[in-house]
Amino acid sequence: MPLSLTSANRNALISLQRSLILIMMAIILMPILAALCLLHVQMCAAANVSKLLELTQDSLTEQMLSGRMFFVYFGNQVSPTLELFLEQLELSAEALEDYGISVAKINCTKENIPIYCGTEKLMKKVYLFRGAEVLRSFHTDTVFDVNAIVSHVLFTVLFNEVRYVHTPAALLGIEKAAKGKMDIVFGHIQVLGLPEHRALMEAAFVYGAKLQFVLTTGGPVLKHMGVEDPASLQAGLWFLHCKGVSGPGEACPHTAMRSPLTTLSIHTFLQLMEAPLLTEAWVDPAEVKVGYSNLRVPLLFLFSQPQTAALDRDTAHTLAWRLRGQVGVVLIHRDSPDVRSPLKYNAAYRLSDGAAVKYVTFSNTEEVITLFTEPRIPAGEEMTAEEEEREEEEEDEDRWTTLDVLDDEVAESVYRDRDQILDLEPVIELTADIFSSALTQNDHLVVLFYVKWDAVSMAFLPSFVEVAEALEDLSDVALGSVDCGEWTDICGDQHITSFPTVMAYRHDDQAQLYRGMLGSESLHRFILLSRLGGPLRLSSSEEVRAFMEGGLEQAPYTLAPVALGVYSSGQDAGVPLFEAAARSLRGQILLGILVDTSAQNWARELSVDLPALLVRRGPEAQREVHPIQASSLDELIALIHNASLDPFPELTVENLPQYLELRRPLLLLFVAEEGPESSAALLEIRGLLQSGHLKGYLPCWINLCVHFY
Length: 709
Fold this sequence. Notes:
The N and C termini lie far apart (126 Å). It contains 23 helices and 27 strands. The protein is extended, with a radius of gyration of 39 Å. α9 links the parallel β12 (299-304) and β13 (328-333). The chain is an alpha/beta fold. α4 packs parallel to α6 and α12 crosses α14 (455-470). The strands form six sheets. A five-stranded mixed sheet has the order 1-3-2-4-5, sandwiched between helices. A five-stranded mixed sheet has the order 6-8-7-9-10, with helices on both faces. A five-stranded mixed sheet has the order 11-13-12-14-15, with helices on one face.
């Protein structure tokens, strides 16, 4: 009779069957799992194996015979500096492998290879080979890290694909050859070997077959591209659209890349340059698909009305050019039944693929440009008060770190005194609303143009206020200031390009730039002298004597150079020229003029031919007479200026700039102490100067006891 199972026995049998199945599966899968683990271990080991080859003389010969490209360092002893280089060389091996370039090193203590293994203890040359040919050798200081190695190696490999230029004419020649054929990618790298240089070379390796790459490191070409201050630009990239230009006199329009240079950003930028300038669609913005959506750039949608279709297309085309490389522009035709967007909006935008479409109404094109060029803070990401305080503390720390590194005494003093509140009451704070009226209401207005982020500006500001306080009693003089960080329109109109800048304004006269030292004493003297306007008119020998000795009440400082123009007649054609020169030199030199009978009498007494220039450079200096033979204003200004300078001056911090402006080589005499030896040396130099043996040089002397101790 059949065996009947109880419920408990049946459950036990089922459990046994399941256990047997699991055991059999484990037996089958175990070899597979073991193989997978072994493969994983091998892959990890392979990943840790260095790509840097260690060659022998035989393997070097094999590399040369292969015709491949390889980058090799020959060395023997290793210093700490070379040890760091070898670490970077090893890192570069993996990067250059992607471009088919091997990286190797050879130990010259084991392998004596002629030519390359020299006798030096520390060998600092690396060689780039193509087969047996040396393309170029590099000093290890040039290829100092992985970015420098990759960038310099690729720059050498891409010699024909990347043209180097250093003049606008060379760039224009490349443009001329490229018109109608291909577009140009023009890059500026201030210092070769940096990450930006590597990113540009990697892009050239990928796109060099269809785009002409051009590189520069100098400023003249940047000025040609519209960069006002080339020194401030570390790296930049422009796309020159030459392929669509056919006319010989037509310039290639260009688009500037506005983001930092990285491999990814350059790739995105170049892809956008190849995308259609303007896309047209007949559906709502949310349904628009563009071919470059993978680049994740914002999209601007402009709605076109049937009545203004041509004008709308022109507007869209203009905006597309201005935003090219940053934003994709789509023109949507409202005459399509598939466009159901609200009629009250004339535009929409989407910041990234998948983001919500936002509808807007613009009144002009500048509002569109502002939307995409000014930084935006996404909703919900505004900083709390605690976060702002924390960020300020971090910026505080960063500023101190920068000061520690730079050791800039000016910046340090400004930073140290940053919490002190400066009383600007004596100084008129000029704005766009009152600047013009301040010029008309004040006979003599002296204006400081500055920016708060500039350390020199902030260091000079207290001196400017000090001068304003000292001149408060003068009703015809006023001092004002313009913060160019806030009132950019004023500073632009006045052509202010550096900070701080001081300008003196007088009614119906040209503004005058202050060129002196940034200190209260020099500025004070400049303002008092510039109040005098044109030359002082003298009428007697007594007035001439007092003027030359600084005894006239009008003379504000006896330390200033004094120059007197003497003419036989007030109708002399040189008199108006001298008056114009006096206005140009206002604030620098105290100028007077003597004409007619008084001048003739004075000339007879001193046996001087007229016209003549009488000069005294200081209270203890001798008077000198110079004939006036200038035929133009510039010549006369140069004559007066040069005559007022000491031919053998003692150089000081204050007068050094004006002597450097002469652009003559300095012959320096250093005097350590007063005494017979120093006096003899000074007399000897003066004798050489007077005998004409020092022509072409500017002899001068420095008192070390005064200026250095």
